Amino acid sequence: MSERQTYSFFLGCVMPNRFPNIEKSIRTVLPHLGIELEELEGASCCPAPGVIRSFNEPTWLALASRNLALAENAGHDIVTGCNGCYGTFKEALHIVRDQPKRLDEVQKHLKEIGLKYRAKVEARHLIELIYEIGHEQIRELVTHPLENIRAAVHYGCHLLKPSKLRPWESKYRHVFLDELVEATGAESIKYRDKYICCGAGGGVRGSNVPVSVDIAKDKLDILIDEGVDCLVNVCSFCHLQYEASQAQLNKELGEKKYQIPVIYYTQLLGLALGLDPESLGLHKHVINTNPFLEKALQNH
Q1: What is the CA angle 81-92-94, rounded to 5?
Q2: Which residues make Cβ contacts (< 8 Å) with residue 278, sequence separation at least 6?
Q3: φ, ψ for residue 79 (rounded to 5)?
Q4: What's the whole-model pTM score?
Q5: For helices 236-253 and 83-98, angle between their N-to-C axes, nearest 10 degrees
Q6: How far apart are CA 220 and CA 204, in angstroms?
């Protein structure tokens, strides 16, 4: 494995407030891959690409640039585990690099609070860092292959779009996350409507919960029919959507029809590396993970 790399870790809002178990899995697993995370002191909301930007784009750009400036001044690229935060940072960097006058405007705002910013920092998604290691290399690290698990991969919108501002080879149907899931020994199944939105982004979950839940329900119903053991994601907001939507649907139905464990990729990989499930936060999910864990660990 290559030399260890250090990144400024941007948590975002959802992960520390709703899913510290995901954060725990990231902090536990990444050092095993040669990736070190440094605290990004003073960070704020990214802010959200589909909400704040829609109301006041200059404010969105200034706040996003402030977070990027904090990482730049720390001497590291910024890394996040949320697709929305990733989208904000990638697009904010594109704007100020493509339009020098916008960078000048941002620099004036940041100068007032004592921050220098040259837009030389890069924004990364943690799955991007793992993918660069290579799925074959990840497979070689696996000591406890999850051969019994049928997983449904959910990419999420902002991880892939707009494609011109993303590092992934431009394809109509991506496979990089499927490859990383299968590197753990699990099977990444093919299923209908795999690449549709989770239904939470763009302020939909905040403004119209029934519509948001109905979008999530479409995919959940497909996955129930497919008999999957888990849904694997790489976004804290998508994670929130699929866990909370299942809980809400079960409450409305008065029965526990929706019981698909929602697993963040570092939790899945951590199990395959032989790490303790509690150290990966797998005991702190809204949807019960015990059936998934029993099946994942039955040969270990």
Answers
A1: 110
A2: none
A3: -130, 140
A4: 0.96
A5: 140
A6: 18
Query: Contact at 8 Å (CB) between 81 and 26?
Result: yes
Contact 232, 181 (CB under 8 A): yes
* d(C-alpha 243, C-alpha 262), whole Å: 6
Tell me how far apart the alpha carbons of residues 239 and 206 are, in angstroms, rounded to a whole number: 15
Q: Is the dihedral of CA 249, 254, 257, 263 positive or negative?
A: positive
**Sign of the torsion angle spanned by Cα atoms 121, 122, 125, 126:** negative
φ, ψ for residue 284, nearest 5 deg:
-120, 40
Domains of the chain: 5-125 (1.20.1050.140), 137-297 (3.40.50.11810)
pLDDT digits (tens, 9 = 90+) for 27-44: 999 999 999 999 999 999
pLDDT tens, residue by residue, 98-154: 999 999 999 999 999 999 999 999 999 999 999 999 999 999 999 999 999 999 999
